Amino acid sequence: MNALTIIGIVVVLALAVFFAVLTCKSKKPDVFKWVLIILFVAICFTWLIPGGSFASDGTFTSYETLTRIGLTNIRDLFFYAVYYPLPTILVLLAIGGFYGVLSATGSYKKLVEKTAAFVKKYAIVSAIVIMVVLICLTSVLSKSPYALLILVPFLITVLLHANFDKLTTIAITFGSILVGQLAATYGTDNLYAFNTYMGNGYSDPDLTVGLTYRLIIGGIAAVLFILYNVYRVYKVVKKEKNNDVKEDLYELKPVEKKTEEKKHAAWPMIIVMVLTLLFVVLAYFDWNGIFKIELFNDLHKVINEYSPFGKDLPIFSFILGNSNLSNAFGSMDILAIVSYTLVMSIIVALLNRLNVSEYLSAVGDGIKRFIKPIGIFVLTYTIFLVIYTSPFTTSITGMMYGWSHNYVPFISILDSLVTSIFHSADIGYTSFALANIYGSIAVNHLPIIEAIYVTTNGLVQLFAPVSGLLLIGLTYLNVDYKKWFKYIWLYALVVLVVIALVATFAVYVIK
Fold first, then answer.
1. Domain annotation covers residue 275
2. How many CB atoms within 10 Å of residue 335?
C-alpha cells in the first residue's frame, strides 16, 4: 500500500470512530446506525483498497484497478440484498404471520400464561434448559440458525411474561442460537459452505474436518455462556430487579366469540408447539448424511410413488410438487417453513373458528412485527454484497499472510476477525476466496484453520453489529446495540482467548 492509501484508510477509520462516539452518546435506538457505520467503512474501502486473488501456490496478486462502489452501485446492492436472501425474508414473514394467528387465540394465551408461571418459579433451571436445547439444535441442524427462529417468538413471549428483562431474553434465545453456530458440529449452513471450498472439496465437503477442535472450543464456549447467563438470571430475574418497560411484541388479544365461553385449554397449543419442534428437528437434521438413516428417504419415495387411481396418477406427488420444498425429512429447503406455517396457521384458525377476515387481520398484525427486523437483515446483507462486488478483504488477507513465511495461527485469528465483519452473511465466501492459500502454505493445518474461521465467525456474529440474526433480535425487542455490547464483550473476549489457546496447542504442540 502506498502512503496515500494508508492516509485514506486512517481518515475513514477516524470518521467511523467519530460516528461511533456520536452513536454511543445518542439516546435514540441505535441498531441501524451501527450497521450504517460498517457499511460506510466498507464502501469507502472500495475506493482505497483494490481486490486480489491467490494463485494455486498461495501467492497473492493484487488487481491493478479499483472496483469502486458508486451511487448506482448502491442502488443495485440494495436490490440484490433483497433478492439473494429472499427465502430467509419469506421465512421471517411466514413466522410473523404464524404467531399473529396464534396470538389471536385464547388457547395460545393460556399456554403462555401457564408456561410463564412455571418458568418464573424455576427461572434458572428453565433458562439452562432453553439454552442447552437451542445451542445443541443449532449445532447439529442444517439450515440453522434461521430455521430455529420459528421457536423464538414463543420463547420470548414466555420469558417476558416470566419477568425476564429484554437483555437476558435476547441472550437466552438469539444468543444461544449464535453460540450454537459458533459451536457447529454437523449443522449450520456456515459450516457446510466453509468446508465445501476448503481443501478443494467442492463436490463432497467433509464436515468432520476440524470437528475435534470445534467440539473443544464450542463446548467451552457453550458452558461459559450458560454460566454467564445463569448469573444474569439470578442477579436480575430472581432478585426481581427487572426495570424494563413491560412490552410484549405479540400482544395476546384473543378474538372472542360472543356465543362461546371465555375458557380456553392450553393443550391444543401444546400440540402445535410440539409439532413445530418436531418438524424443525425432522426436516433439518441430516439423517442420511450423518447416521446413514434411509427411513425418511424411503418413506418419501413410497408416498410420492403411491398411485391409488392408476400407475400414472401419483396423487401425492402431484399435490406436493417437484420442488425441493417437498424433499424428504433431513434434506428440506428453508422455505419448507413457509409451507408448514401456512398449513398450521390455517388449522389453528379453523379450530378457533376465526373467519377469513379475522385470520387475515391476525396474519397482517403478525407480519408487521417483523418489518423492522427484516429491514436490518437486508442492511447487514448489503455489507457482504459490497465485498462480493469489490473484494478488498482478500487484499487484507494477502497482506496478513505475507507477514510470515510459516503458518502462524494468530494471523488466521486476526484475519478471521476482519473477514467475519464483512463476510458475516456468507462465511462460505471466505473459504472460496482463500481456498488456494489453505491448500498451499497451510495444507498441514487445515483442521485448526477450519475451526478458527468457523468459531471466530460465530463469535463475531455474537457481538458485532454485522450479524443479521443478532440485529434481528435487538430490533425485534427494541434493544440498543451498545447495551448488548456492554453485556457480551467480556464473554466474547474470554472465548477469543480460548480460540487462541486451542489454536496455539494445535499448531505448536500437536503439530
1. no
2. 18
Q: How far apart are CA 419 and CA 38, in angstroms?
A: 13
**What Rg, from alpha-carbon coordinates, does the chain have?**
24
Confirm whether 150 is domain-assigned.
yes
CB 397 within 8 A of CB 53: no
**pTM of the complete model:** 0.91
DSSP 8-state code for residue 56: T
Residue 292 lies in a domain: no
How many structural domains does the chain have? 1
* Strand, helix or coil for residue 259: coil
Beta bridge partners of 54: 60
Residue 186 φ then ψ, to 5°: -120, 0
Q: What is the reported pLDDT for 308?
A: 67
Q: Is residue 355 part of a domain?
A: no
The three grid cell numbers given for residue 291, joined into one nine-digit string: 447416521
pLDDT at site 290:
75
The single-letter code of the amino acid at 301 is K
Contact at 8 Å (CB) between 63 and 52? yes
Pick the closest to residue 500 from 440, 441, 459 (CA basis): 459
With CA atoms as reference, report the closest residue to 468 among 455, 457, 453: 457
Residue 360, pLDDT score = 93
Q: Give the whole-angstrom CA distance, residue 484 versus residue 465.
A: 10
Domain holding 484, by residue range, is 3-256+370-510
Backbone angles phi and psi of 52, in degrees to 5: -175, 180
Calpha distance 284→186 (Å, rounded): 11
Q: Are 296 and 309 contacting, i.e. CB atoms less than 8 angstroms apart?
A: no
CA 448 – CA 203 distance, rounded (Å): 21
**Whose grid coordinates read 419477568?**
163
End-to-end CA distance of the chain, in Å?
34
Grid cell, residue 105, equals: 387465540
Beta-carbon count within 10 A of 142 CB? 21
pLDDT value, residue 242: 66
In which residue ranges of the chain is pLDDT below 70? 1, 199-205, 238, 240-263, 300, 303-326, 439, 441, 511
Q: How far is CA 83 from the centre of its chain?
A: 18
In 424-466, which ranges are continuous DSSP H helix? Answer: 427-438, 446-463
The CA distances from residue 260 to 110, 156, 252, 264, 358, in Å, are 16, 29, 18, 10, 16
Number of alpha helices (DSSP H) and beta strands (DSSP E) in the chain: 24, 2
Cis geometry, peptide bond prior to residue 465 (ω within 30 degrees of 0): no
Q: How many CB atoms lie within 10 A of CB 493?
A: 12
